[in-house]
Here is the input.
Amino acid sequence: MFLAGPAPPHSPRTDRRGSAATDETIAHNYRTVQADSVAMGLVNAAGSFLPVLLVRLGATGTQVGLLSALPGVSGVLLAIPIGRWLQRQRNIVSWYSRSRLVAQSA
Here is the structure.
């Protein structure tokens, strides 16, 4: 999978500081990304059943439409302000990870 010997300065096995990534770190990152993908897949799959649930709970057509459009509208309204705020942060990865956790738990 990886070449033997020391990693060149800009290889996938080094981080931004030039430190070599260990096999343990690579395996941990792989497992974390896979778990995140599964969780987001479940969240996205459940979202398609939202209108059915709302109708079964007695919601009107207008209510179903408004509640179904809410995630898209909030994404459009918040994308630029949150993006500008993230640009000012030093460590974007931790903020991104926290937002994914909130999205998965919602």
Summary: Residues 10 and 16 are 8 Å apart (CA to CA). The chain has a mean pLDDT of 79. The chain has four helices and no strands.
